[in-house]
Amino acid sequence: MTPILQTRLSYDPTRPRPLPGIAPMDPDDWIIVDEAHAAQMAARGRLLAERRDRVLAMDDAALPAAQELLDAVLAVLEARPDHEVTPGQVRRPDGVTVALHRDDPMTTLGQLVQQDLCLMEKRAEEHVLTAAVLCFPASWTLEEKFMRPLTGIHVPVDSYDDSMARRVQRLFDGVQVGRPLWRFNALWYVDPTLHQPRREADRRPERGAEEADYLRTERQSLVRLPRSGAVVFGIHTSVLSREVVQHLWPAD
Fold this sequence. Notes:
Layout: E1 23-24, H1 37-50, H2 52-55, E2 56-58, H3 63-78, E3 84-86, E4 89-91, E5 97-99, H4 105-112, E6 116-123, E7 126-133, H5 142-145, H6 150-153, H7 162-174, E8 181-189, E9 214-224, E10 231-241, H8 242-248
């Protein structure tokens, strides 16, 4: 299958920030449409049709927050010329019309935007993953992380120690309505496939950047929903060839 690749990016993924690498985000930049939109949306449609149980999950109690998330995304799309939002449906930039189903908000969201969306709700002392549409996992599985708190989600990340766990929880607690945040990661991959689930026990093979031909980077966003107070963790995935990376960001 032909890989789905980007040829440009709004940030330089070759210059990592110190963890957790968070910066303020313009609310208008939450939902991105890039040159891989049509191909990524087609891939999302296939995954939702063929592997629904692997890419979609929602706790029954999360329905109000998930519906609020759908309303928030629709409000963004209504203000943009590349989407046509009418009662009951949305016409995407690729010409596909998506029916709106408020009783199934996460599926609808998976068909509306390129980015994966994870709903994090505060339960007891930590935020818990209570709903998600995750079509493009990078070496993790929704099945293992669903209904886990932040500390459980980050198993087996070596750098996620007790100190980092406290910092990330404070970060989620501190996200304010109307003041979203973002960060990015970047890792070299041999395989450019977007859907790359991997269970915790199956560690990703350690390979140097010189052995891989594709840079995979996630633009991750944190958005607070005003009614439910849930935090939306968005993941917009881009994959660039080594040639494009070297052209855009030549080595010093």
